[in-house]
Amino acid sequence: MFTVQLLSAQTNTIEKKKFHFGREQDTTAGYAQVVKVDNILYVSGTVSTDISSAGIQRIYQTIERSLNYFGASLQNVVKENLYTTDIEAMKTHNEARKKMYKGDYPAATWVQISRLYMPDAKLEIEVIAHLPKEK
Amino acid sequence: MFTVQLLSAQTNTIEKKKFHFGREQDTTAGYAQVVKVDNILYVSGTVSTDISSAGIQRIYQTIERSLNYFGASLQNVVKENLYTTDIEAMKTHNEARKKMYKGDYPAATWVQISRLYMPDAKLEIEVIAHLPKEK
Amino acid sequence: MFTVQLLSAQTNTIEKKKFHFGREQDTTAGYAQVVKVDNILYVSGTVSTDISSAGIQRIYQTIERSLNYFGASLQNVVKENLYTTDIEAMKTHNEARKKMYKGDYPAATWVQISRLYMPDAKLEIEVIAHLPKEK
Q1: Which of B35, B38, B83 has the CB atom closest to A79's CB atom?
Q2: Structural domain A14-130, CATH architecture
Q3: pLDDT in tens, B14-46
Q4: I need a labelling partner for A47 at 20 to 30 A (CA). Which of A19, A28, B6, C83 fits?
Q5: ipTM exceeds 0.90
Q6: Which chain B positions have a beta carbon within 8 Å of C135's beta carbon?
Q7: Domain ranges of chain A
Q8: How far does C91 lie from chain A, in Å, by closest CA?
Q9: Edge-to-edge, what's the strand order for the sheet holding A40-48?
Q10: Closest by Cα among B65, B59, B64 to B90
Q11: Fold of the domain built from segment(s) C15-130
């Protein structure tokens, strides 16, 4: 029975491509910054300890660099989830975020949570981006 | 080098369609209620200040109206993420939500968080919906 | 007007397949453990009251069993969202999670939230998995 399931799973192997800043993935925490499957790019939560215009800009620049690896930019982002320990601070500095999107905004959800992976992290942004469909 | 990246990103431009209640998007907060790419509809967190049957129903009616724009309904929703400041209140009034789905439920995750975008918001629901594949 | 919208929505009916541990879906809380649409598997938040190696392993085994139903395994997971009431405890026991992925990690976001659906739940993990594209 186990063999059958394993065989079945092997039969349905998918082709994933990963990006993690010069590596394929982070094997310490156990995640990849981007996983590409079909024409979809799933981007991991990208973090800042600093909710300022500069801190926000750095996050989006990191996300953009991750997307660039696959030939995409922030204009390919269709969905954004933003987690922060201080949503009012994020709202105060939203212009820095809006500039990065160049007026072309994704669907978005923002929530204030208790804390993030690193004790001093204050802002984490994850996105889904799409590439054109492969012909 | 920057030119090459920009060219590459331009080459991979995707076709997005947006809906935001008579507008294309909200340029103040910087998001669109729905972004459609391929046959997927990414719907932004939709909010209520009132966790009651009426408040819950209003959220799903707003989501349904957003989906209707693309010829979809709540039966096209495949994934729901629900964020609330009071999960017990949401559980108490879940029948109002269930009625909206007409017995055809999505995959779902519910979490209780510290707060939402607006200080008085208590409930935020985001969904992913699919349309039939384009031929 | 309502008739037109309804007609339009009916025209765009999608084919969903669901899995919920021997049932199609849970009609009490109103969700399905997995909804499959096209070649994408949306998996609901899967819960443990126990942030230990054994508790974490049980969650991933439940997710794996859900994926196996569709001929997929944890190697088909491309995105993970982890919600916990104690992120430090989760970090302490991350090796149990990493073993389940067998060194092939998804894009991931971890956040610490106030509480989950059940009052005593401490850890909830949701994933998106892909199957090979249907030819």
Answers
A1: B35
A2: 2-Layer Sandwich (3.30)
A3: 999 999 999 999 999 999 999 999 999 999 999
A4: B6
A5: yes
A6: none
A7: 14-130
A8: 8
A9: A16-19, A34-37, A40-48, A123-130, A77-84, A107-112, B115-116
A10: B59
A11: 60s Ribosomal Protein L30; Chain: A; (3.30.1330)
